[in-house]
Every structure is written in structure tokens, then in C-alpha cells.
Amino acid sequence: MTARAADRARYDRATAQLDAPVAIVDLDAFDANADDLVRRAGGKPIRVASKSVRCRALLERVLAREGFAGIMSFTLAESLWLARSGFDDVLLAYPSADRAGYAELTADPKLAAAVTVMIDDPAQLDLIDAARAGGSEVVRVCLELDTALKLLGGRVRIGARRSPLHSPAQVAEVARAVARRPGFKVVGIMAYEGHVAGVGDAVARRPLRSRAVRLMQAAARRELAERRAAVVRAVREVVPDLEFVNGGGTGSVQHTAAEDAVTEIAAGSGLYVPRLFDNYTSFTGRPAALFALPVVRRPGVGVVTVLGGGYPASGAPGADRLPVPYLPEGLRHDPQEGAGEVQTPLLGPVADDLLIGDKVWFRHAKAGELCERFDTLHLVEGDAVTATVPTYRGEGHTFL
């Protein structure tokens, strides 16, 4: 029996009394992935990206482990909810226009001490001030650096279009604007190198593309390490007591941690290891989050149909954004139908071994987005479900 076949047997036994659709997290794999992230971080703390987990119980579990500290959130409403729930170090990774949230933040000393907001433009300070509604608490501010690699005088750009702040002078100028403004304090710098941390460099059956990605990423790492260090020096001239410099992501943990200027690493997807993280040379994780759909039809030889399955991931549309049938091995999507809204046909000789009611286990393309489809996660240890916990959705929250 292969390792994957053994996992299927365990998951089927653990969920035998549960009707599909059902979602699980294999805690043995989850904890092993957490240990690997800590190892790669080389002693620097890891701030957990909540968008890649979206379950309070699992955020609490990983933050109780040595090597993890703080949360990187994705909306202001989520940040405030987490802070009210007892998480005392929440970095909002994206600028917000949530006026009601800012009014709440600036009126509550506990929330203002726990939550750090992201800016890359002084106009965002204007929005916060206009939303205060009498709240006078000092707002903790993090400045985001654009990490994109620019070539040929800027005519070629590689990297996500995020912050407009690219040079040390630009970041330092915004730091000065914050320092001059009552009610705000710069406490950190963030720089997420998604073109390094979030792009696989070992694409199956694409050796030339994979080599090109590795060359690009090596150049991007060198350029960013120099520029990030210069940015930190420039900002420290304005803010000597800067608390943190955040960088990285699951795919670049060890590389970013090697930079002296970086004080902490961000990661989250590496806990669940969705399918988009199969194509990396920098690490190998264990799939920890899966969902099962029930076989409801057998349309013909080599075909079964499961209920549901149309759970595409965000990003540029493509086949790589679809969930993939994982267990039993040997199933694939019908290219004419893909993953359907209400039903999904699956092809392969192994389909003939499946009976009505059997479970087919899938991996989502991305990590936390799976939790937007399920109210609960069943936590599996060995061949038993040892706990059932709510996702954000299960607690009544869909922040985006």
C-alpha cells in the first residue's frame, strides 16, 4: 500500500460516520509542516498569515508552538475580531477603507494596542482621521514596500502590483509624513515578495520555464535584499525604535530569514500545503487540508460523478486554480466540464472501483479559501476525528 493509499484508508475510517461534503485537517501533517517552517526560519519568529488558515482554533494551535508569534490578517474587521478574541499582535497586511472599523479601532485602547494597520500613501491617513468619530487612540502603522523586480529602466516589472513605495527615499518620506501627524506611529515595515514566495520553480513537464523562474527568483532575491536593507536604514533614521521588519512567505522562508534586515517571517499556506505549493524546490510539505465529495453517479465505464466541487481559487484563471482529485489516486477532471457548481465528473480506470456514496478526497488550489466553503473542519489524528472546529464561515464571518 502506498503512503497516499494509507492516508485514504485513514481518512475514510476517521470520517466513516460523516456524510460528505466534508473537510478535514490532518493534524500530524499540520504539525509537521509547522515544524518545517520553524526550521527554515532559522530562529526568526513566524507571523501566521490568517487568510491561509481561516480557523481560530488552528491559529491558536500554531501560535502555541515555539517559533510562531503574531498574526498577519487580511481585513480590518477580521483584525478587530481577532483582537477582541484575545490575539494581542495582529498586523493588517492590506490597506483598508473600513471607516466603521477605524472608528472602533481609534476609540478602544485595547484594540489600538493590538492591531497594526498597513499604509503606503498619506491619503490613507486622511481616511483614518476622517473616520475617527472622536476616537483619540494612537494608530500603529506599518509601511509596505513594493518588492517588484524592475528591469530595463522599469519597462519590465516582475511582481505583484501592491505598494507604490519602491525606493528607500519614498518609504522614508512616508515615514516622515506619519511622524509629523498626531495620532499615528510607525512601528514596522512589510515587504511581501510574492514573485519569489508564491511562484513555484519546479513546474511539472516545464523544465525551461522552471529554470527561467529560478533564474528570475535568484535575481529578485539579490536585488530585494540590498534594497530592503537600504529601506530599513532610511526608515530607522526617521523611526529609531522601529519594532519589526516583516518579509517572506511560505515559498521563501529560508531565503528571507537569511537577510539581516528582516526580523520576522510571514507564512501560512505552508501549514495546509495546498496544490499550488507542490512545485517548489525550496521545501516539500505534507498536504494537511483536504475535502471529500460523495460519489452520486456512475455514468459509464471509467467515470464517476461527485456532488459539488466547483471551488476555484483566486488569481489568474487557469486549470491550476481548480481543486484536484487526490484520493484515490488516478482520477482526473473531464476537460469538457472541469469542476462543476453542483456536480463534477471524474475520469480514470480507478473510477470503476468506486461505489455510490464513496468519498473522493480533493486538495484545494490555495490554502484558506477552502474554509469559505465549509462551516467546520474535522481534525484528524491517526484514523480518528479528535475534534471538530468552526471555520471563520462557521462562526458567521465572511470578511471578504
Task: Describe the protein's architecture and organization.
There is one protein chain. Strand 10, helix 11 and strand 11 form a beta-alpha-beta unit. The strands form three sheets. Strands 1, 12, 13, 14, 15, 16, 17, 18 and 19 form a nine-stranded mixed sheet that branches. Strands 2-3-4-5-6-9-10-11 form an eight-stranded parallel beta barrel, surrounded by five helices. A two-stranded antiparallel ribbon has the order 7-8. The model has no long low-confidence stretch (mean pLDDT 94). Helix 5 packs across helix 7 and helix 8 packs across helix 10. With 400 residues, the chain is of the alpha/beta class. Helix content is 32%, strand content 24%. It is globular, with a radius of gyration of 22 Å. The chain is built from twelve helices and 19 strands.
